[in-house]
Amino acid sequence: MDFYMLSIGEIEKELNIAPFDHTKHEKKGIRDRIFDDWEEAAEFIKELRNDRNMHLIVSCLGYELVEDNHKVKVYYKITHSFS
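Structure (tokenized):
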């Protein structure tokens, strides 16, 4: 997919992701990772959502454009399940 041809709204819809709301999420346990472009971010999001580890709950919490909108920061949380 050519993310350079899409608007930010189309990217959000395609990846089912929204801007990260810093006031909505508790900071504890939130991780982030910065990517050079949307293609790398999309691959990471796909991997997060396809993780089939029965003892982990992985949530993609949102994204933020950083470094003058040249990079994508993805926020996610991994919770260990002991059931």
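Helices lie at 8-15, 38-50. The chain has two helices and three strands.
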